[in-house]
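Run log, item B.
One chain of 553 residues. Sequence copied directly from the ordering sheet:
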Amino acid sequence: MEPATKLDYNHQLSLKELPYIIRWRDDRCTRCGRCTAVCPIKAIEPTVKVQRMVMSEGPMPTPKAVRNIVHVIEQVTDINRYCTGCGTCTLVCPNDAIEPEYNPNNKFLHFKNRGGESYRRGGRRNDPSISTLDRLKFTRISMLTDPALDAGRHEFRIRTLLGRILPPEELPLKKTNGKLIIDRENGNFIPPVREIFPIMIGSMSMGALSPSMWEGLAMGVAYLNEIDGLPVVMCTGEGGVPPRLLKSRYLRYIILQIASGYFGWDEIIHSIPYMVEDPAGIEIKYGQGAKPGDGGLLMAQKVLKLIAGIRGVPQFVDLASPPTHQTKYSIEEAVAKMIQSMSMAWGFRVPVYPKISGTKTARAVLNNLARNPYAAALSIDGEDGGTGAAYNVSIDKMGHPIASNIRECYLDLVKQGKQNELPLIAAGGVGKKGNLAANAAALIMLGASAVSVGKYIMQATANCFGDEYNRCNLCNTGKCPRGITTQDPTLYRRLDSDKVAERLVEVFRSANVELKKIFAPMGRSTELPIGMSDGLSIDDKAMADRLEISYAC
């Protein structure tokens, strides 16, 4: 091999340009090879180097140079194999000889777009700052005590409703023999409504998640409903579901999502005559907070045999969902076509609602839905939502914060007198700092009827490595070192579905207790404090004015 020229060296990267630098301890390393074997992107490799040492021995020592061959672990500087800081090498090292260290002076964003391709990644935005949700405090506390409201005893249920709620004058009730009964004779439409836990598992598809992760979540949801009595629901994301689930009674805990790619929907539609239970709901995805305006994308390296079979597509091809549904050009058409057709498919027994990105146009969508009797809710995904694959510029620079977006939509419903009719579902950054229940409670008091969480669930149940410092975030590549977002059997077999289910149950049990801890001192025991903004305060005057809540410092 010819020696590199000065120009060759001038175009190489040093470790200082990379986001993580691997610290390796020669004195501790036994050269077992575990670290290099488990690295998902081969950012480290074993190599040999010539070590020159000056030695002097014997009764008349004369210095002489000795060259030894030594075995080392070396970090590569190839931009296509840069260390993402996942730390899998540290987990398997028996002697704590290796660990990645964050490099705050990195210039990675200057070099990431190689080959003219915009940089894509999974995870969440590179923003470690404290969000508005984490700055909100609950400052209205009742001075009266009541055993039913005692925060230490929790003798009340935390529930919300998914589905359009009719105003009192439109309720199909009639009085017969001194009793109120449902009047089904006059032909009035009765919207389907589900009683659910106010924290939902957000849309993460079978394809974006590994079989082990998806199965673990589904098992945990079934346990929560059937054993613990917590009606937690889970959204499938776009991409279909395993056929055996469609024909099982556990489908009642699942919200099926349809998006512009229609992936997996042939199997779902053909299974309707054989379904023993209706799904909990149908979600129509028009956008997501991590990449508003973009369509969905499942990259080719994740489209293996199982996923290709469920989605009805060839293997190893990019699966792109267009930014808009091919049959529609406006939200008005979506109301007329998608919502009504999905309602008709299940005989108007299942709540159907759209999911949109958090944007300034959310109110326009809301106002259109408010007039549609078949629209069951509106889900808004804020800018901090996670993603399996998106352009970095979309994740970091596009979108609308969920707190102000959900607030202005709720206040719009208040002006129309429909705040108790059309539920709002908030998503995007819920639990970003680990405060799941507090963030959910804050959004509920700003006007949401329920919240949807995704990234937090992965972090809490499967110990996802990803963070807002661009650590790991390999969700789009199919190389997830935890086995969460990969279709590679050698990787997803690292993940135990049973442990995922156990952790999910623990997460929701604790969230249930914490929500009661927040709501009980406010005197709420029979219903959620939806829109109860006088119980919130914040230490920023501009934020207080924007959200129309009290300012406290």
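Observations after the first pass:
- The chain has a mean pLDDT of 90.
- The chain is about 30% helix and 20% strand.
Flagged for discussion on Thursday.
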